[in-house]
Each structure stands twice: as structure tokens, then as C-alpha cells.
Design goal:
By secondary structure, this protein is α/β, with parallel strands linked by helices. 31% of the residues lie in helices and 16% in strands. The chain binds iron/sulfur cluster and magnesium ion. InterPro entries: 2-oxoacid:Fd_oxidoreductase (IPR051457), OFOB (IPR011896), PFO_beta_C (IPR032686), THDP-binding (IPR029061), TPP_enzyme_TPP-bd (IPR011766).
Length: 283
């Protein structure tokens, strides 16, 4: 069985020292090992942004896609080979701005895969512009007088779109993050994990200390029941989505692959790519 070290490669990440994305990378590697995966049974598909580099830093199949398009690629990979564990990943700009249409439909489609968003509430790669996750009043080069747009609440959006697994974590809490990724991988359907992953270079407001001050861990709410959809929604609304842990899980809904009539359970990659002459003539 592979250890987490076997999910490492020899490429040194070029994230800024202190970037939250380092912990997300470590958590994926640990979770993959803890659930018994091998590098050849995992595919990590990412979009564009600082966080999008993550697919190159994990020893597994990987594809660094195009901006906002990690999910269509990842869903295609999963449908082509159901035996692969597929993780899509990217930033809040990638998944909640240009990619939001794909995100909503991937959620409601419920293909068995995991989507990890590194949410730093800013565009990091392009040197610090306001993202859909930035707070109202947030000042950057793109909103010098402060953002006047409402902040997107992706987890509320996910639950209303029919999500079957919604979780949130903080890159400083490696133990919780690793456990949630394990649960997300094991969930039979689409799992969304939003991770507060500070951008230490361009976001001087939503820092590690700021998150520590504002986050409530669901473990401190003993009566919280993640199978209760209404409770999940009201708790998100009441806390401004500043909660971490498993927020909502529906274990009853079947995943997309199990509902498609006649969908072949065996990986499509093992089937012949072209028809023989006789098969073609018999069409
Ligand atoms: Fe991380 Fe921000 Fe540096 Fe990008 S710019 S690597 S998000 S700290
Ligand atoms: Mg971002």
C-alpha cells in the first residue's frame, strides 16, 4: 500500500513561502494514502491560478487544464475510467467566477469525484484582484474604492443546487482537512470541499489570524447533524459561511454513473477504440 510520500514527486512548488496551498497539497497526499490509493489509481485535474499548479506537484495522473474548466475535464476523465479516483482542484476565481456554470452543473450531476477549491478570496496569480469571494468593501487594484458587489456564498449555492457532500476546512488544520478529503473521496457522488487557503502575498485582510478569529469548527456544535439539509443551509446563512467541518452529506442519492441506464461499469479505456470491419458493416 502506498504511503503519502509515494504521492510526492521531485518538483518543488513555486508557491510563495507560507501560501495555504502547501497544506492542501499535503492533505491530498495524506488522504490518498490513508484511503488506500496508489499513485496510478488517482488523477488530479486542475484549472488555472496559483492553486492550479497543484496537479503538477502530486505523483499521480494529472492535467493542468484551462481557466475555469477543471470540472468538465475531470468529469470526462471519471466517465472514461470509473476505476480512477478523480480529484479536481482550483481556486475561488477559477471555480466560482469563470467556472461557476460548470461548478453548479457538476454539483447537480453528482458524478463520483471530489472538487477541492483553494479559497483565498482574491486572484493570486494575476497579482491581487477582487474575486467573487472577496468581501464587500474589499480594496484591490481592480476595486480601489472597495468592492460594491455581493460576496458569493458557494456552499449555500451548492446545497440549493442539490449537492450531496459539502465540506469546508482551513489549510492550517491539516488533520481536519485530510479527514474531510478522505470522506470526500469515499463519498459515492460529487463532493465539494472549500478550503480557506490564505494568499500571504496579496491578501493582507483574510490572513491566517483573521481566519482563526472568524472560523467556528462544527465539532464545537454537538447537536449539528450534517444529514439535515435545512440545518446546513441555516447554519451557513447564520454564520456567514464561516464554519468548518462536514456541513452536509446525503448518502441516499445515487451517483450519476449508477443512474445512467446501460452505463458500462468497466473502464471505457479498456474497450476497443475503433469498430472492426464486421462490426461496422453490422451497424
Ligand atoms: Fe499563494 Fe498568493 Fe503566492 Fe499565489 S500569490 S502562491 S496564492 S501566496
Ligand atoms: Mg483565489
Amino acid at each position: 500500500m502506498a504511503t503519502f510520500k509515494e504521492f510526492r514527486n521531485n518538483i518543488k512548488p513555486n508557491w510563495c513561502p507560507g501560501c495555504g496551498d502547501f497544506s492542501v497539497q499535503a492533505a491530498i497526499q495524506r488522504a490518498a494514502a490513508n484511503v488506500g490509493l496508489e499513485p496510478e489509481s488517482l488523477a488530479v485535474i486542475s484549472g488555472i491560478g496559483c492553486s492550479g499548479r497543484i496537479s503538477g506537484y502530486i505523483n499521480a495522473y494529472g492535467l493542468h487544464g484551462i481557466h475555469g474548466r477543471a470540472l468538465p475535464i475531470a468529469q470526462g476523465v471519471k466517465l472514461a475510467n470509473r476505476d480512477l479516483t478523480v480529484i479536481a482542484s482550483g481556486g475561488d476565481g477559477d471555480g466560482f467566477a469563470i467556472g461557476i456554470g460548470h461548478t453548479i452543473h457538476a454539483i447537480r450531476r453528482n458524478i463520483n469525484m471530489t472538487y477541492i477549491v483553494m479559497d483565498n478570496q482574491i486572484y493570486g496569480l494575476t497579482k491581487g484582484q477582487t474575486s467573487p469571494r472577496s468581501s464587500e468593501g474589499f480594496k484591490t487594484k481592480s476595486t480601489p474604492e472597495g468592492s460594491i458587489e455581493s460576496t458569493l456564498s458557494p456552499l449555500e449555492l451548492a446545497i440549493s443546487a442539490g449537492a450531496t457532500f459539502v465540506a469546508q476546512s482551513f489549510s492550517s488544520d491539516l488533520k481536519q482537512l485530510t479527514s474531510l478529503i478522505e470522506q470526500g473521496i469515499q463519498h459515492e457522488g460529487f463532493s465539494l470541499i472549500n478550503v480557506f487557503s490564505p494568499c500571504v502575498t496579496f491578501n493582507k485582510v483574510n490572513t491566517y489570524d483573521w481566519f482563526k478569529e472568524h472560523i467556528t469548527n462544527l465539532d464545537t456544535m454537538p447537536d449539528y447533524d450534517p444529514s439535515n439539509r435545512t440545518l446546513a443551509m441555516t447554519t451557513l446563512m447564520d454564520t456567514g459561511s464561516m464554519i468548518t467541518g462536514l456541513i452536509y452529506q446525503n448518502k441516499d442519492k445515487k451517483c450519476y454513473e449508477d443512474l445512467v441506464h446501460g452505463f458500462k461499469p468497466e473502464p471505457l479505456v479498456n474497450q476497443p477504440l475503433a469498430l472492426s470491419e464486421t462490426e461496422f458493416d453490422n451497424l
